């Protein structure tokens, strides 16, 4: 099991003296791909005995469970940053003050005024001796070749992942694994967990970690529209959750083939968690083929809410999420959804696919609002009084199943209240409430066809 990874649970054969003789994968075990082993560990308290046969009380079979610390403990300080006018100044201040390391991952790193200013700040810090790692997805293009060369010449470790050739090869591997798993299933084998890195499986996360004590996570890429034009949200966190963000970044860095980099020692007094706060922050991820925890956490929060579910999101097409919202609205909860207005939506095919189910959403009792004037790119939600989330994941099948994503789920009265006051209550006033609308035959046909292909949008 160690050739390409390890099993999430193991059946362990013990000798009469209690020493481990062999580790044999069992039918209920799950396989973890190489590069993710560091995010798993033995569960506290040891294993649970299962099917133990006792010969003289000495020989038996025991089972130890491995668990993954997906949740961060309390003791975090978290700030909500709304729009580029708040996020980018804070980011630049933290980058400029970095003393030991900067890890930055983004989906889009535009070669414009905003992107170049951040890139040159990273280059300056690298020349000062700060360890700088930058991970960018290739789908939408990245910094120009001269600027990439400038970064690397300054000492920045830059990795561009999911290039077309890599993605095509990944899709072919996915097809091969699917065929092999199908053959294995005929013989009762459970297929291993494998990350999918094909044409559809890009890395949509936006994470920054500075000196391993300050972390950012949210919806904003590095580009002009995110700093000056669009409506979006990001969170800045200090405390134990930063170590989890660092673990996500480092795992993606290794998966993308990034070079091993030994980070310098932290400056005295700047260790993670040295400035504790009241907020419990869970760093939750989606990793295609391996983990779909953002979907799970959204569904749990929707199902367990008692009074209120408010969501603001750029792209909402997932059947299960929408069914849950309609069901809770019929239960009498205050369910509200804010999406971009039709005139400013940046992906017309997603806008039109949503129109096919829009009336059904409204008839269920969900308050549907469309935000006009500028594109809404935020991915935020507030549940009742205490739970809130901000991150990179939209609420469509591509984001929830096929892209690598990261969200912060925050249990904190102050942060949840801040999100309600500064985002939702303001945006309700700026958005138009949508009722049942009559669609012409062409709009019904077009939206119906696009909705049929919603799993690809």
Can you describe this structure?
The chain has 457 residues and is of the alpha+beta class. It has 3 domains: 5-67, no CATH class; 77-162 and 201-255, Endonuclease, Chain A, CATH 3.30.870.10; 281-456, Endonuclease Chain A (Endonuclease, Chain A, 2-Layer Sandwich), CATH 3.30.870. Helices cover 35% and strands 26% of the residues. The chain has 12 helices and 23 strands. It has helices spanning 84-97, 113-127, 145-154, 164-186, 224-229, 241-255, 293-304, 319-330, 348-363, 397-402, 413-430, 441-452, and strands at residues 5-7, 9-14, 20-24, 31-33, 41-42, 48-49, 60-67, 77-82, 101-106, 131-137, 157-161, 207-210, 214-218, 233-238, 280-287, 291-292, 308-313, 334-340, 367-371, 379-383, 387-391, 405-411, 431-434. A hairpin with a 3-residue loop joins strand 15 (280-287) and strand 16. Helix 7 runs parallel beside helix 8 and helix 9 packs across helix 12. Residues 1-70 have low confidence and may be disordered.
In a few lines, what is going on in this structure?
With 457 residues, the chain is of the alpha+beta class.
Supply database-style keywords:
3 domains, 457 residues, single chain, seven-stranded mixed sheet, nine-stranded mixed sheet, Endonuclease, Chain A, 12 helices
């Amino acid at each position: 099991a160690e050739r390409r990874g390890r099993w999430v649970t193991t059946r362990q054969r013990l000798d009469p003296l209690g020493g481990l003789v062999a580790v044999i994968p069992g039918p209920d075990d799950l396989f973890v791909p190489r590069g993710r082993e560091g995010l798993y560990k033995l569960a506290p308290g040891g294993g649970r005995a299962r099917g133990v046969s006792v010969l003289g009380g000495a020989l038996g079979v025991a089972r130890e469970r491995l668990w993954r610390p997906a949740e961060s403990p309390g003791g975090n300080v978290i700030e909500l940053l709304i729009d580029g006018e708040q996020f980018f100044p804070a980011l630049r201040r933290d980058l400029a003050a970095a003393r030991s390391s900067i890890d930055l991952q983004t989906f889009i790193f535009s070669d414009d005024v905003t992107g170049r200013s951040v890139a040159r700040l990273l280059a300056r810090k690298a020349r000062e001796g700060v360890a700088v790692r930058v991970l960018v997805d290739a789908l939408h293009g990245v910094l120009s070749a001269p600027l990439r060369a400038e970064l690397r010449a300054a000492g920045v470790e830059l990795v561009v992942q999911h290039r077309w050739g890599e993605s095509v090869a990944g899709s072919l591997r996915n097809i091969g694994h699917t065929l092999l798993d199908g053959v294995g299933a005929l013989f009762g084998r459970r297929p291993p967990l494998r990350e999918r890195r094909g044409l559809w499986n890009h890395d949509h996360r936006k994470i920054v970690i500075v000196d391993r004590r300050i972390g950012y996570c949210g919806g904003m890429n590095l580009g002009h529209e995110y700093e000056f034009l669009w409506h979006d949200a990001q969170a800045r966190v200090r405390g134990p959750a930063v170590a989890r963000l660092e673990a996500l970044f480092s795992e993606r860095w290794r998966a993308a083939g990034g070079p091993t980099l030994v980070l310098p020692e932290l400056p005295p007094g700047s260790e993670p968690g040295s400035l504790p706060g009241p907020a419990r922050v869970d760093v939750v991820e989606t990793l295609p083929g391996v983990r779909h925890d953002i979907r799970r956490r959204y569904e749990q929060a929707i199902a367990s809410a008692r009074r209120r579910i408010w969501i603001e999101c750029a792209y909402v097409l997932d059947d299960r999420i929408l069914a849950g919202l309609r069901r809770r609205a019929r239960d009498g909860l205050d369910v509200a959804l804010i999406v971009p207005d039709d005139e400013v939506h940046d992906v017309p095919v997603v806008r039109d696919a949503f129109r096919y189910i829009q009336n059904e959403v409204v008839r269920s009792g969900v308050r549907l609002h469309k935000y006009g004037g500028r594109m809404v790119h935020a991915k935020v939600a507030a549940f009742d009084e205490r739970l809130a989330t901000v991150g990179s994941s939209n609420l469509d099948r591509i984001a929830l199943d096929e892209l690598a994503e990261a969200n912060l789920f925050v249990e904190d009265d102050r942060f949840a209240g801040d999100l309600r006051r500064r985002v939702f209550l303001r945006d309700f006033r700026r958005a138009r409430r949508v009722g049942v609308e009559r669609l012409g035959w062409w709009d019904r046909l077009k939206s119906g066809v696009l909705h049929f292909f919603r799993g690809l949008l």
